[in-house]
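Researcher: Last one for today. Full complex below.
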Amino acid sequence: NAGVTQTPKFQVLKTGQSMTLQCAQDMNHEYMSWYRQDPGMGLRLIHYSVGAGITDQGEVPNGYNVSRSTTEDFPLRLLSAAPSQTSVYFCASSYSTGGVYGYTFGSGTRLTVV
Amino acid sequence: AQSVAQPEDQVNVAEGNPLTVKCTYSVSGNPYLFWYVQYPNRGLQFLLKYITGDNLVKGSYGFEAEFNKSQTSFHLKKPSALVSDSALYFCAVRASGGSYIPTFGRGTSLIVHP
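Model: Here's the assembly. Have a good evening.
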């Protein structure tokens, strides 16, 4: 089925560990982005990409890295996990940056840092 | 700068009654407005959008939203609520033109009681 696939669905990390959250889409969308969702905070943009080889920071980029080597994939890397990064992470993609046609979201990765 | 407010953390409504989920916004120039729905343990799904034209926008699952420029509002409505409409609803706004990235609200939890 066409859409945005995120892996893993759940992850527990120890403080200081690193990991990569995977995101892949098969809709040939140029725009991809990562959000974190925290209670009472809504969705906050971490990083985004407008095409292969092009990335930029969102509202809350500290502690996260991204790269976009292909149109399909947009992994999010946590370099040294901290408890403050406990959250639900969503990847989203769209034909356009502004989401005029709507964003397609993945089902999320629930991350707990202990 | 652009911002969106969802003044109610939770809305309770009886099944069969009309529902309204409120959204107000602030943006320079004309707005593009969006509603998304998130069911438990799922990613967000696009419901509807206002770009231009008729102030009453119809979307998926029988939902509609009314754009009111003078009140800077974009309230989500449905004439007859279903228990299955219970979910988290997000409003988003961006400035028209260019490639602005939408800003999401904090979300409103809709609970429809049988």
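The mean pLDDT of chain A is 94. The first strand of chain A starts at residue 4 and ends at 7.
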